[in-house]
Fold this sequence. Notes:
Blueprint: E1 19-30, E2 33-44, E3 48-52, H1 59-66, E4 74-79, E5 82-84, H2 88-93, E6 95-98, H3 110-120, H4 128-138, H5 154-166, E7 172-176, H6 184-199, E8 203-208, H7 211-217, E9 220-225, E10 228-233, H8 235-243, E11 246-251, H9 254-266, E12 270-273, E13 277-281, E14 294-297, H10 300-308
Parallel strand pairs: 3-8, 3-9, 6-7, 7-8
Antiparallel strand pairs: 1-2, 1-4, 4-5, 9-10, 11-13, 11-14, 12-13
Helix pairs in contact: 3-4, 8-10
Amino acid sequence: MPRGRPLRAGILPLVTGELAIRLRGVVKRYGAITAVDGLDLDVPEGTCVGLLGPNGAGKSTTMRMLTAQTIADEGELEVLGHRLPGDSKAARAQSGVVPQLDNLDVTLTVEQNLRVFTYLYRIGKQDRQAAIERALGVANLRDRRDTRVDRLSGGMRRRLLIARALVHRPRLVLLDEPTVGLDPQVRQELWALIDALRAEGTTILMSTHYIEEAARLADTVLIMAHGRAVASGPPAKLVAEHAGREAVEVYGAPGELASIEAEAIAAGLRTRRTGTSVSLLGVEGANGDTPAGERRPTNLEDVFVLLTGEEIS
């Protein structure tokens, strides 16, 4: 892509190499509801791209279309060079999928769950045990290999889901809300695991509604709302472009905040409400003419709320 050429809304810039995922004008409707509305997405090989948005933004529907569990009504989808849904079997053979909902066989042990998938992915008999050992090692589950799944903690079950998706050494891993419902400590453990995959050069597409997760893990973030892409780019670039470098957080009564907000907008500043306060964004260019308040760096949450109006957990 030539320098200086603007990107179409929703198109991620080509970073390196070939595209692992390519979507153009993808639409999915459920009756009168349009879950995904004209989505364009590029995921370069060897990168981690995060789909960030609240519940109902279209993230999980997009993930299901990429595995051909759901068929798009319009648009083009390619995964690892294979056109979907026609070539979905070939694409799935080179992809690993970590679903949002736990679908492990709770009557089997950790190792038995992995062994079943070595058969499903047609790993040769002579290579099966090595594949299982590698997956156990990546997920740090070797000491739990003989434990039945129904006796694992939520974090261990999530690690097993990731290990299962990696057992055939896929080129692409799809993570649908990988840490949903987990406490912060367990979430950090899974972030370390995802970081290790990135270091190995595995391509990752991850959907999440946790802003910190997207900022921490993704090379590029696509912000979605109501089935559409509203912004895309590296997290730091999105923050600088939409929210500036610094914000002033001003606390006060609702009427007072409304007046401060109106004056800031009239002065050309962007603002966001945060309950009992209003944030004035990009104040580094305001020549010091801002209300007294708490100064802080801007962040991806500012961008998200500014562009979508949604608060997310």
